[in-house]
Amino acid sequence: MDLKNYASMDPVMLMSIINMKLRDEFASLEDLVRYYDIDRDTLCARLADAGFTYLEDAKQFR
Predict the structure, then answer these.
(1) Who's near 53: CB < 8 A, 6+ residues apart?
(2) Terminus-to-terminus CA distance in the chain, angstroms?
(3) What is the pTM assigned to this prediction?
(4) Pairing mode, if any, of strands 60-61 and 54-55?
(5) How far apart (Å, rounded) are the C-alpha atoms in residues 1 and 42?
(6) Which is an annotated Pfam family here (predicted)?
(7) What are phi and psi of 54, to 5 degrees?
(8) Interatomic CA distance for residues 62 and 5, integer angstroms
(9) Cα 38 to Cα 11, 19, 29, 46, distances in angstroms
(10) What is the reported pLDDT for 19?
(11) Which three-class secondary structure string do you get for the chain?
(12) Under 8 Å between Cβ of 18 and 43
């Protein structure tokens, strides 16, 4: 799934996709945002607005 439209995606769907990609494809959030050329702070803020926080130790948003 392409994440170029992450800013307009449903936040629950976005969180689910990001967590799946972190689990299956990327070693870290930094790797994921670098690969998709996404601003990490903007992504985290978008998900935080929906009530999700990135947990570094768990390597996922909850």
Answers:
(1) 47, 61, 62
(2) 20
(3) 0.93
(4) antiparallel
(5) 19
(6) DUF4250
(7) -80, 125
(8) 21
(9) 15, 15, 10, 12
(10) 98
(11) CCCCCHHHCCHHHHHHHHHHHHHHCCCCHHHHHHHHCCCHHHHHHHHHHCCCCEECCCCEEC
(12) yes
Residue 2 φ then ψ, to 5°: -80, 135
Q: Which tokens go with 36?
A: 């998709």
What is the Cα gyration radius of the chain? 10
The answer to whether residue 1 scores a pLDDT higher than 90 is no
Quick: pLDDT tens for 3-56. Answer: 989 999 999 999 999 999 999 999 999 999 999 999 999 999 999 999 999 999
**Which residue type, as a one-letter code, is found at position 20?**
M
Which two tokens mark 20? 């799946």
Which residues are paired to 55 by β-bridges?
60
